[in-house]
Structures are given as structure tokens and as C-alpha cells.
Amino acid sequence: MFNFSYKTQRYLILFGFLTIPVLLSLTFSYYPAVSLFYYSLTDWTGLGWDMHFIGLDNYKEIFTKPEVFGVLKNNAYYFIGGLVQVALALYFAVILNGRLRGKNGFRAALFLPYVLHSVATVIMFKNVYHGEYGSLNMLLGAIGLESWQQSWLGNKHLVNISLAFISMWKFMGLNMVVFIGALQSIPSDLYEAASIDGASGWQKFRYITLPSIRSVMELMLILTLTGALEAFDIPYVMLLGANGTSTFVIQTVNTAFKYQNFGLASAMAVVLLLMVLLFIVIQRKLLFRGEK
User: Which stretches make up the ABC transmembrane type-1 domain (predicted)?
Assistant: First the structure.
């Protein structure tokens, strides 16, 4: 039995608590990131370890092929849908944070879609969007809007909107719960003082609620942006990226596993990481430059 002094025990505990997270980060974050960048400089096919260093050739190929970045227009649908989703989540959070009978039931109902697995969600919406027996077309027919019935996944002008709606429906509940937590942290005295001064509901929301949840809004917008750039599971499971629904991540996955060009796919992943960081910096500079 070792008899260490209090100071020694303190240093050992601190060393242990710091070492384990650092080792986990090095093993599962930094080493894979460095390996990814190295693979992007090679012609690795993903089979075995036979690879040759080709420098920046993969990056040159990415920036000389317009179709690589052309799919980002499909990611834009998810970003716009994400902005609508954040607005709706904040709207429901404000309503369900007040004195509303049965609000816990409404919270659970809106949060439930987030609990569902993405694959199950996509399979469910396949039955919603089906051109013949889909519930959406049946609903339109029942209310006399037969002219609106169509193949929601076959129309190139509507398919990405339909897929973005699935993402919005799934993740709105999570954003709502986060907003409710932020709203509950605002002191009620501020609202009481504003009511005494004769402030309206909109004035309370504009001058008390929004400034108080500014950091949460920033987080939500960052998650919306990164989620839009990394959109994959919904369009891939629904259509495998066909009919003009391919996203940047789907194209990266196809490059790696379909065409067995892991070097080029690694370079695309690095470019995606840089795009995410760049857009986050731009977003903070433009939207939150006045925050200190």
C-alpha cells in the first residue's frame, strides 16, 4: 500500500483525469485526421496498403471538376430547411414554455421524431410520398386537391424539398428542447419588470428573449450549417442519391466505395472539413460580430 502525500495524490488524480481524455482524443480524433490528410495525398484504392504519394493531384482533380461542387446546390435545400426548422423550434419552445395545459404531452409528441432511427423515418416517408398509395396524395384527394397530386420523389423540382422536409421534421424536436432549456434559464423578474413598464409580447421577445438566448441561437445555426453540408442518410437511404439528390457526402462515399478511390475521397473529406470551418468563421463574423 503506497502512502502518498496529499499533494502527490492530487497530482496523480489530475494526471489520470487528463491523460485518459488526451489519449482517447489522440486515438480517435487526431490520429484519424492526420491519416485522412495523408491518404488524400496518395492514390490509395482502399485495398491493402499499396499506395503511392501523388502530392496535391487529388485536390487539383476536385477543383477542376465542376460536378464535385455542383452537388452543393442540393445541400442548400437542407440549409434553408434547417433555418425554417430553427424558427419553428423557437416558436414552439416559446409557446410550450408558457402556461399551457398538457404542454408536456406536446413536448413529447414534437420530440418523438428525433428518437426514431433515420432509416425507419425514411421508410415511413416512402409511404407518405409514394405516387400511387402515398398518404400525402390520398390526403390531397380527400380534400379536393387532386391537381396537386404527383410523384413527390420523381419530380426533380420537388424531390430535394421533400427530402429536406424529412430532415426538418426529424430534428425540430431536438432544437425545441434545447430552446426550452435556454428559455427556462431567463430570470422571470425581467419579464415581470417589462410587463410593469407596459411592454408587449413582441417587445419582450425581441428585447429580452432573443438577447438572452443569443449563444444558443449561434449554436443552432452552426449545427444547421454543418448538418446541411454533411447531409447523407436521408437522401442515400431514400434514393441512393439518384434523381438529382446526391450531396457532397454521398459523392464522397461513392468515390471511396463504389469507385475504390480512397485517396480522392479522403481529399474530398478534407475539403468538406475546410468548408465547414470556413462557413463557421464567416457566420460568426457576419451574424455575431457584435457579441463580446
Answer: 71-283
pLDDT score recorded for residue 291: 53
Instruction: Check whether 69 has a pLDDT greater than 70.
Output: yes
How are the residues of the chain apportioned to helix, strand and coil, as percentages rounded to the nearest 5? 75, 0, 25
Q: How far apart are CA 172 and CA 175, in angstroms?
A: 5
Class at the top of the CATH hierarchy for domain 30-119+156-287: mainly alpha
User: CB of 266 within 8 A of CB of 58?
Assistant: yes
- At 279 the pLDDT is 84
> How far is 240 from 113, CA to CA, in rounded Å?
22
Query: What residue segments make up the domains of the chain, in order of their start?
Result: 1-29, 30-119+156-287
Beta carbons within 8 Å of 53's beta carbon, 6+ residues apart: 41, 42
pTM for the complete prediction?
A: 0.86
Closest CA relative to residue 68, chosen from 278, 254, 240: 254
Written as nine digits, the cell of 193 is 419588470
Q: How far apart are the first and last CA of the chain?
A: 52
* CA atoms of 292 and 284, how far apart (whole Å): 12
Report how far residue 43's alpha carbon sits from residue 158's, in angstroms, rounded to the nearest whole number. Answer: 38
Tens of pLDDT, residues 126-174: 989 988 888 899 998 889 888 888 888 888 889 999 999 999 999 999 9
